[in-house]
Design a protein that fits this description.
5-stranded mixed beta sheet, 4-stranded mixed beta sheet, 41% helix, alpha/beta
Amino acid sequence: MKKKNFARKALSLSLAAALAAGTLAGCGEKSSEPAGSAESGAASGESAESSGTPKLTYWVKMDSSKIAPTTDNYGTIQCYKQMMENTGIEVEFIHPPVGQESDSFSLMISGGEYPDLVHYDWGNAVSGGPDKAIEEGVILELTDLIEENCPNLKAFLAEYPEIKAAMTTDSGKIYCFPNVYPYYKEDTAVKCNRGVQIRQDWLDELGLEAPETIDEWHTVLTAFKGMGTTEDGSPIVPMVSRKMSEKTSLVRTFANAWNGMDYDFYLENGVVKFGPIEPAFKEYLATMNQWYEEGLIAADFSTYSGKEHDALITTNQAGAWLSGLGAGMGVYITALGGDDSKITGIKFPVKEKGDTPKYTSADNYPFIGLGIAITSNCKDVKAACKWLDYHYSEEGSRLLNWGIEGVSYELDENGEPQFTDEIMKNPEGLSVDVALGKYAMVSQLEAFAKDDRAEAIRMWNYDAQEAASKTWNETDFSFRYPPTVSLTPDESSELASILSDITTYRDENVIRFILGTEPLDNYEKFAETIKKMNIDRAIEIKQAAYDRLQERLKAAQ
């Protein structure tokens, strides 16, 4: 094994319905943990009300896969305890139940009884967009508040104006304190934190190279199937994939091999397209259907979420898949005995040898719409600004990224933080993310600027992970449709109306084509039906929003 040390209450019913239509966006593969007691987020001792200490309430989902083993409330995390002491502001954390985040959010908003701060995907998951949430009095417009009360965030946005442009709506409004991912740096160590992974030991046993083209993939998957069973007699599953509705579906990702084509909207030289109606989509479907009928794809993949998907990998049955670098690849290597020579991260598939790999489901934007909004119910806006601005200070950033000096990290001879063995070789056997979750927020949802070194080190517990990230970095990400476009409330409503039927029709029929229950001879009828469902108008709205974003970004340069 090679391991490293390293709104008000009178909220209109129309807005409540619109918000209820929103869903939490991808970040994917994250879930939440049930809320702790109302007092669990506050410091012990004298109450904030009696002492005069400012106190805020903060609603935020938790990533239970990375934190549940050590806590059920952010208030127990050491960086927050230190932040409360440093800022003199107490925070009570409120977490929605696992799997009920969207419903909990909608009920909270429609009831008007929301807390001071709410972390959410305001940029993408709220029907009508953030402008409507501001206009309807749910959240505050932040431009002037940041200018007057947030020197740290103001300085950060001045240094990186493209981030400010991305988090500003077309009407000029800033709606949240942003989750900032480290992709704003040109030399970011990890440009893409998930990708295609394969059993390298099986390739070695068969004398095969890692596949790149569609034809090479067919050869490798066929050879994997020919291996028959594992040592304990379980059947080999050449390729396992999550269901098509998830961005981390490998079957879905294979569409990218056809010149960046996507299962959804994508870009080609700045022009918005919808993959399922593109001519090449039929060839993609035919390929997936052939592989499925030959038994190269997990038989029940169309129903798989993470649990079923991961089980085939960790029980030594799966040959190839797509998953994350840290919580995916690192967990799989550990489950397979800690030998990182068994799994390799490989290039995204291409149609022809020599083509540049493309991937349209990467979330590697500095800002993707996630962040903390100050609600109109906030009783102490200045305290909220102070606490949130601290997140972007040097001291606050160090706490959120690295945790507590002398415990979760030490400074090396160059003054650079390095995670300690408490994190990298946890004596209780906790994974890096779970161990880190006791002290810092770099692997969780929070509004601050992530340090690319902390992000990389926590995901490079094995040499194979670092090698995989370097392979995935050599990918063309320009075909993805950006998550930071700004739709007008009318556009958002019209687009949602058009896509509600199209999305259902697409999802049902694409699966039928791949499984063979719908003949591919009916593909043209399928594409024509989508066109009759007004997909051209949806593309027009998407194009206009994309063009406006480009204008904002140009103006920021």
